[in-house]
Write a structure and sequence with these properties.
The chain has 311 residues and is of the alpha/beta class. Helices cover 45% and strands 7% of the residues. The model has no long low-confidence stretch (mean pLDDT 90).
Length: 311
């Protein structure tokens, strides 16, 4: 039986792709080339409807156990097997499935300031042409309606950042000793030290990994203008119907549109003080809960000063 010994279980837009890429370089660890198999997100086939692009993503789910186990068949003898699906922390059902099927698995969870995480999430979908709201706060206000219409978790900009609630539920199914909490900022600013923490937690040699590959970095700046609104409309339309076509056809149609949309490059926008002030009240109580649940301090996330939070 080939099941994972560890999971990078959260959270989206907090460095999970980079951590996955870094850990593949350790000779005592094996991670399959398929990132985010999402196996523990369902008990059967994934949904068949959702927001723009969701159904195409659902088609990528490795939901049958035989296919999931096959991902780890190539693991060399004696290595620890792992995978990265950053939605496992958010999905309460995944907690129960993990505890039932892999009760001894270790979980690595990267946490990021919830307002900055939400903004990065929105930017990701905006740059991909799938987000129709040019205003970040307007997109956040649309969240409840989108959730009611069955849009996938990646559209849950605010709910994904309520880590206190999520960890409180996770600890009802797995012991705290099985969970390593990291900060996105630590992975970015102190990669060697943070990677050693991960390796020590997993029980493999430290000092092997010293750097984080630059993964999932996008420097495209997508302006809200008439041409780009047309391009985004076409990309969203493709997201709605693309699942009906073979992957090569989808890529052939989507590629030129993205190239045009990304014709200009520049620094991606960061959260403004006004946006932060508007959204921070959504997370204040949960940050307090997170501190109670973990015994760690996250007071810096309550600051409106970006530089204070970056320290």
């Amino acid at each position: 039986m080939s099941l994972p010994d560890f999971l990078i279980a959260g959270v989206p837009k907090a460095g999970t792709t980079a951590l996955h890429a870094a850990l593949t370089g350790h000779p005592e660890l094996f991670l399959p080339s398929v990132k985010e198999p999402k196996f523990f997100l369902s008990d059967g086939p994934p949904p068949r409807f959702g927001g723009p692009g969701d159904v195409q993503t659902y088609q990528e789910h490795v939901w049958q156990r035989s296919d999931y186990e096959a991902l780890f068949d190539a693991a060399p003898a004696g290595t620890l097997r792992g995978e990265a699906t950053p939605f496992y922390l958010y999905d309460r059902g995944a907690h129960e499935r993990i505890a039932k099927l892999t009760p001894d698995a270790k979980l690595i969870i990267l946490l990021r300031d919830p307002v900055d995480r939400a903004h990065s999430n929105w930017t990701h979908l905006w740059v991909a042409g799938l987000e129709e709201e040019a205003d970040f706060l307007a997109a956040c206000r649309a969240e409840e309606d989108r959730r009611a219409r069955g849009w996938a978790a990646f559209w849950h900009y605010l709910a994904l950042g309520r880590y206190g609630e999520q960890l409180q539920h996770l600890y009802q199914h797995l012991s705290r000793e099985q969970v390593l909490l990291l900060r996105y900022r630590d992975l970015k600013d102190e990669p060697a030290r943070t990677l050693d923490r991960v390796c020590a937690f997993l029980g493999v040699r430290t000092g092997v990994l010293t750097a984080i590959p630059r993964e999932n970095v996008n420097r495209h700046y997508v302006e809200d203008n008439a041409v780009n609104r047309v391009l985004r409309g076409l990309l969203r339309a493709g997201g709605e119907v693309g699942h009906r076509f073979p992957v090569p056809v989808r890529l052939a149609a989507r590629g030129p549109l993205l190239t045009l949309l990304h014709r200009t490059k520049g620094n991606r926008p960061v959260t403004t003080p006004q946006e932060r002030a508007a959204l921070l009240p959504h997370f204040t109580e949960d940050i307090a809960l997170l501190q109670d649940v973990t015994g760690e301090r996250y007071d810096d996330w309550l600051s409106l000063d970006r530089h204070a939070r970056a320290r």
